[in-house]
Design brief:
Layout: H1 2-16, H2 46-49, H3 54-71, E1 75-78, E2 81-84
Length: about 90
């Protein structure tokens, strides 16, 4: 529990670093992690398995393009896989 409390204390400062990327106010709420339930198998790695499907083209691709445009200095693309830069 101590680890979670430490991370919760750090969150507000962390998000302030991204304010300049957005026009409106950033509103965040940090919740305690209670449980993880994986998606059904048919939805796991959906984008990797189905990049040409309409859902991916309509919803995921535009979001990825926006994220890459704004945060590309934090990401490396290698063999169509994203890696966090160090």
């Amino acid at each position: 529990m101590c680890l979670i409390q430490n991370k919760r204390k750090k969150q507000p400062g962390y998000w302030k670093n991204f304010k300049f990327f957005f026009k409106g106010e950033l509103i965040t709420k940090v919740l305690d992690f209670t449980a993880f339930k994986p998606s059904e198998e048919q939805f796991q790695n959906y984008y990797d398995a189905n990049p040409e499907k309409p859902f991916c083209k309509t919803y995921i691709n535009p979001k990825l393009k926006l994220l890459l445009k704004q945060f590309s200095k934090y990401v490396e693309i290698e063999n169509n896989n994203f890696k966090e830069t160090t």
